[in-house]
Each structure stands twice: as structure tokens, then as C-alpha cells.
Amino acid sequence: MELRSIPQMFFERAARRGQRPAQLVKQGGTWQAISWHTMHDRVRHIAQGLLTLGIQAGDRVALLANSRAEWVQCDLGIMAAAGITVPIYPASLPEQVAYILNNAEVTLVCVDTLEQLAKLSQVRATVPTLRYIVLIDGHLPQSDPMLLSLQDLLERGAAATEQAAQLDARVQRLTPAHDATYVYTSGTTGPPKGVVQTHGNHLFMVHSCGQVMGVQEGDIDLLFLPLAHSFARLEAFLGVYVGLTTAFAESIEALGENMREVRPMLVMGVPRVYEKIYARVQASGNNGSALKRAMFRWCVRVGRQASRLQQQQQPLPLGLRLRQRLAYQLVFKKLQQLVGGRLRYFISGGAPLAQEITEFFHAAGLLILEGYGLTETCPALTANSQAHYRFGTVGPALPGVEVRIAADGEIVARGPNIAKGYYKQPEAAAEVFLADGWFATGDIGEIDAEGFLRITDRKKDLLVTAGGKNIAPQNLENLLKTDPYISQAMVYGDRRPYLTAVLTLDVDETLRYAQAHGIAAGTPQALASHPQIVALLAARVEQLNQRLASYETIKKFVIAPTDFTPESGELTPTLKVKRKVVIQKYQQEIEQMY
């Protein structure tokens, strides 16, 4: 059957898969399966419930909730009713929520908790188009004609049998050209823009990714990224397309425990997740007795030797195979068990990942496949695959996608996955959605002879030193973040004689160091200003500088008293550094370094 829309794909797949598990949710300490049949009925009842509320084709319906099974069910239900889903990051501030609701002219909002409901209550009077709020979890705090629970919506939909034919007709009328969702960019440089993504964009993307990813029906994936981000949304839609069983992590903090419990074959994450695991493993391996440290280093050397041959698809000599098995038993077995023991690979996207980290994981027997794309490309352009990967790159173009390098080094792309534009912002769209279907990514890169794309930096972030050297700060920041004592880094130096950095501490590792060395500093602020900790970081930065050209080295740095977070404004919801915010916040400290 030809696929015409996301809900049509879902209903067709769900009917075929019946009682097989579609979603896994942890409730009461155990993982409960939701079958494709049950999910099918829930999506239909949500959609029919929306029809009873008067939701019209093309109405915008927002989702302000954490990633969970109901998020995906509501998303599919909204689209089945021919509505347009508007995802909002759950960490968004009330004024950010109000901006998106007003810009998209939202009719109904689904929220998952009383906390999100309270946030929405602060601004709902400023959103004239808003008619209903649906609460997924908890009891409604008061009688309000605008409020109803998800259970109420499901019951309305189940009882509205007269709406079944209308729902079927709406799904039938949907085509690949219809708008499916407005996804608001996380906004590193200003107010978010609503990217208009169509059903056709996403249908093409799951088909293209399905050709290279090597996932199979029944495979378990563990979803923990915010579904307001297109990368996580791809995982959800790919689950429908392929027939994955999607387990929903309880939280980012419970990720390790959840991986051990559900033993996924596929995990999609952002670099910050892998950076954290890498830092922990490095810190553990380099602490303890001299014998333990030597054993760890020997195992990593053996793993790297095997990795180099595997990357070249060369057979391992017998001696190396035996040493690799020993290294696995001594060190790497524990790491692989931490992620469940049957992981085929991780996927990394959303931001650049340091090559050092992908190489280390591969040495340990865990493959990280890096891909690349943007919200405007729904969301991927290139990807490494199990059969065809190269560390330090984001892989070749996906099937059906064209990628080339413009004269100024910018990456431009074309394909059926390129979004229609920005909602109500034609001028902004005209700057990046170019003639003949090309899209200007704003990233700088290079393509090697085999078609692998390497990202060197954001076009607008390139630093030009006073000496005229072009420097990509993200590469340096990624290198700094490989140190176990450094959590975040922002490199500065445009039109300056040398580079400086604002660093934040990995509090857990730094506290361990402080306790081992008798340093009395129990808070992040005290650690950041303690002379011995400053000296520690100075030594670590100098060690990293040895791997850089002289003009790339970090000459001076300051340690921020607290880590960068989305809540404090220095990071986007997808954990990218907002450079302008950090520079403004630490402007005085930066100036003092010059």
C-alpha cells in the first residue's frame, strides 16, 4: 500500500501487527507492554475525541509534555484528525510557551503534569485562539470548561461512534503535501521559528533511514530524548514504519538502569550522553591502584588496535583476537553489560561528537554511528551505517538526498525531506530555502572522495583571530569536554590575539578529586574558585593544548560557578551552548582575560 500520511501508515501497520508489543512503559517497578492493537484503539479514540471538541482539519494542537507513550499516541491522534502537531519543550519558560502558542495560533494544548498545567495557566489568557487544555496525568485541579483529562478525551472518542466515518474520511484526504507538524527551532540566536514539516517529509525520511539503519521489526529501542526535538520524533516515526518496540525511559537520570532492564538493540542520543559515559569510564579506569590503571590502558590499546582493523574491514590476527577477548573479560564486558548486553549500535545526532569518543567506544566493542541534519531537513541528511562508517565524519548522504559544498564552504542540501519553510516568516525562509529546492544549512564542511561529510563548524560561529586564523570553536569545545573534570566549554576569541574559554566543572568527578586530595570545598561554587581545582584544570587544559596547533590553544580560561543548563539559559533544550548568552553572562570575566 502506498503511504500517503503518517496516520495512514500507523493504522495500516498497527492493524497488521495486532497483539505484538508497540510500546514499553515502566509502571509500579515493572515494564508493561502496550500492544499495537491497544495503541491503534487509543490513537483512534484520541482523534475521535478531538473531533467531538470541534477540532478542524488544519487546526494546530500543541504538546507540552515529557517523552512518554501518551506523547506519541496524542501526536498520531492529532494528525489522524487532520490537525497539525506543535511540539513544545517541557523545559520551556511560560513566556516561551506563550510565544509559540500565539505564533502557531494553537487551538488545544495537551500537557502531562500539573506543573505544566500551572505554567500554561499563567499565560493562557494571552492566547486568544486557545479553547481546550487536556491533562495527561493527575486529577484536574478544579472544574473548568476549558480543562479535561486525557481519560475524558479517550472516553468521549470511544463513545463517539458517529465520528468514526468522519475520522476515516479525514485520514483518507491527507496527502504527502499536507502539513503534519510545526516544529519550533530551539533558538540559539533569537526567537524560535516554526519549521513547517509535511507528511511527505517524514514518510520519505523513515523510508530512507530504514534502508541504511539495519533495524528489524520487533527490535527494542530506548527513547529518552525530548520528542519536541525532530531527532526523537524520527525515532518514534521509524518505530511505526519498521515495527520497533519503543521503550520509554523514565528519565535521563534513570537511563543506565533502564538500559540494563530493557536491553535495547538501538539507542539514539545526543553527544552529551556519550560524553558523560566516556568521562565516567575514563575517570574509573584512571583511578585506583597502579595495576588497575595499567590494565585499563592495556585493554584500551588492544581495543584500539582491533578497532583500526575493523574500520578497514580487515581480519584480526589470532593473537590480537585472543588479546581482544581478554580485554573484554577484564574491562569492556562490564561496560557492555551497563547498556544491556545486546546493543547493535548507538546513534548520535543533534550536535557534533568528538572523534576521540567514537573511537574509544568502538575500542570497547560499542559502535556509535553519527549522523547529521537539522529541523529544516526533517531531520537527517547524512548518516554512518553499520556497514559503512568513518569516525570523525557524519557519514554519506542518505538515499534520495543530495549534499554539496557551496563556494564559501557552506553545506547545502536538497531532497524530499526539506521542509516547506517557516510559519509566517517568509523573509527568514527566503534566506535559507534557496532556489531549485536547495537548503542552506549554516554549517561549514567538506566531503571526502568516498562521499563522507565532515562538519567543521557553524558558519556564524567561525572565529577569526587578530592574526587572521580561521578557527572552528566547536572542535575545540568538544576536545575540552572529553576531559572528565570538564562538563561544558565555550571558546572565545573572535578578533582577539588568542583564544580563551569559559569552562564548567563536572561536579561529581571534581568532588571525588577534592575528597581524595583533602580539598575542603563541598559546593560547585567553592570548587570553581578553589586554587587547587583551578590548578588542576590549568594542567588538564595544557595537556589538551599539546594536541593543537599553537594558534588553536587555549591561553586562558575562567571556571563558571555553576554548570550550563537549559533552565539557566546557557543551553538549548537539545543541550547546545547558546554562545551569545554565555558571552553576555560572563562578559566581565572574558574581558579580564585580555
* CATH C-level label of the domain at 6-174: Alpha Beta
- The second-level CATH architecture of the domain at 6-174 is 3-Layer(aba) Sandwich
- State the strand order across the main sheet: 2-1-11-10-12-13-14-15
Q: Summarize the main sheet.
A: 8 strands, mixed
CA-atom Rg in angstroms: 25 Å
At the fourth level of CATH, the homologous superfamily of the domain at 6-174 is ANL, N-terminal domain
Mean pLDDT: 94
Descriptive overview:
The protein is α/β, with parallel strands linked by helices. Among the domains are: 169 residues, ANL, N-terminal domain (Rossmann fold), CATH 3.40.50.12780; 131 residues, GMP Synthetase, Chain A, domain 3. The strands form six sheets. The protein has an eight-stranded mixed beta sheet with strand order 2-1-11-10-12-13-14-15, with helices on both faces. The protein has a five-stranded parallel beta sheet with strand order 4-3-5-6-7, with helices on both faces. A four-stranded antiparallel beta sheet has the order 16-17-19-20. It is globular, with a radius of gyration of 25 Å.
Give me a quick take on this structure.
The chain is built from 21 helices and 25 strands. With 594 residues, the protein is of the alpha/beta class. The N and C termini lie far apart (65 Å).
